[in-house]
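User: Hey, my collaborator sent me this sequence without any context and asked if I could get a structure. I don't really work with proteins. Can you help?
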Amino acid sequence: MNEEIVYINNMSSPRDILLVSQALEHLGLRVKEIEIGAAAYMNPEEVERGIIGKALENIGYALVDPEAKLFTERIRSLISAFIDDMLRRPQHISLEEYLEQECKESFGFICQRFQTISGQRLRTYYKRMRIERAKILLNHSLTLQEIAAKLDFKSAKHLARTFKEVTGQAASAYIKRQLLTSMQKIV
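Assistant: No problem. I've predicted the 3D structure and written it out in structure-token form, which is a compact way to encode the shape of the chain:
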């Protein structure tokens, strides 16, 4: 009896964790650990993966192929590396070209597969990651203009608009809140 792990799409809340846990236990599996997107369990009755997949599909979830999971992790890692490179030097290559070179696949195929597996558009993920980096740079007292140039936004205004779209708050409000938080730590 070995521990097995399955990756699951469409999980996003504690309620999903409860439903998936109940479905697995109903099949006779002993859930060891479960989190959004994955479940580890003991399989004493040697329940087949297909049966597990069908049980999860019946309640609105889908198993993710381990190779597919590796694909999305690789794409996320490549995007992170691409953003790191943007910060070190100006980019002379687009994200599309970079991913095509690294994956040896067309950008359209990469986007389609990423969305099918992760449930999120690649461009949306990339935008969110650039804004996460922008937050870090704002904490290092860089101006919006400097950050926009480093992270390949068209302008400071474009960065500010995207920042608000992704975070729900203006960059200036974020900066003020960070300053207040750091001042409270000092006091």
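In plain terms: The domain at 68-186 is CATH 1.10.10.60 (Arc Repressor Mutant, subunit A). You can pass these tokens on to your collaborator as they are.
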